[in-house]
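User: I'm putting together notes for a lab meeting next week and I want to include a structural view of one of the chains we've been expressing. I don't have a solved structure, so I'd like a prediction I can at least talk through. The sequence is below, exactly as it appears in our construct file.
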Amino acid sequence: MEQHQEIINHIKRLTDSLIDYLPVLAYSILFLVVGFWVAKRLDKGLERHFKKRNFDVSLEGFIRSLVSIGLKVVVIITFAGMIGLPTTSLLAVFGAAGLAVGLALQGSLSNFAGGILILLFKPFKVGDTITSQGETGEVIEILIFNTILLTPENKTIILANGAVSNGTIINVTRHGNLRLTLKVSIDFSEDVHKVREIIMAIMLNDPDVLKDPAPSVTILEFAESTIILAIRPYTLPANGPKVQTNLYEKIRIALIENNIQEPQIKRTLIS
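Assistant: Thanks for the context. Below is the predicted structure for the 271-residue chain, given as C-alpha cells.
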C-alpha cells in the first residue's frame, strides 16, 4: 500500500513539474517560431533593399545567406537555453566540431576566404571577361568556393576561389572595351601609307569596331624583306573573337584586290 502511494506521489510531482514547465516550453516554442519568422522577414527585407540599390548579385546572395544562417543559429542557441539545456556545453560542442571540420577542410576554407575577398574587393563581377589560372572566359557566377567561367568555345570552367584571389587576374572588360592586336606582313617595297588607308577603311566600316577609341595601324617592326603592321581595333569584349576573324578575312581580300604583295622570303643557297 505504501509503495502504491509512493508511485502516486511520484506521478503527482512529475505532473506538477510538467504543468509548471509548460508555460516555459510554450514561450520557448513561440520564441523559436517568431525567431525563424523574423529571420525570414529580414531576408526578404534585405532582398528588397539590395534590389532598390542595384546591389551586386553575387554579394547580395552571400550576405543574405550569412545573415539568415547566423540569426537562425542565435535563435536555436537561445531556445536551447530557455528550455534548460546547458548552452555553454552546447557552444563547446559546436566549437570543437567547427575546429575538427576546419582542420579537415583547410583547402575549402582557403577557397571560402578567397570567395569573401573577391566579393568584397570586386576585382571582377558577373558578366566580366577575365583571365585567371591560365583560363579565359566570361564570369557567369561567383560562388563562395568557386568562380565559374564560360569560354568562347562554350566550355564551363570552374576555378577555386583561393587560387583565383591569390593569383594574377586579368580583367578584360574593366574599362568596357577590348583592344585587339592583329599582325599583317607586307613586302618591303609596298606603299605603307596606301595599305594603312585600306585597312583603316575596313575597320571604320565594320559595325563591331568601336570608333571611340579610334582604331590604329602602325608599323610594328621591319624584318627581312618584310614590314609587319600592328592593327589595333577596339570592340566590345563579347565581340572580340568575331571581330578578329572578320577583320583578318576582310583585310586578306582587300590586299589581294589591291595587288598588295606578300613578303618574298629570299633564300641563299649554300654550295
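A couple of points you could mention at the meeting. The helical segments are 2-52, 57-82, 87-104, 106-121, 161-166, 192-204, 240-257. The longest helix spans residues 2-52.

User: Perfect, that's what I needed.
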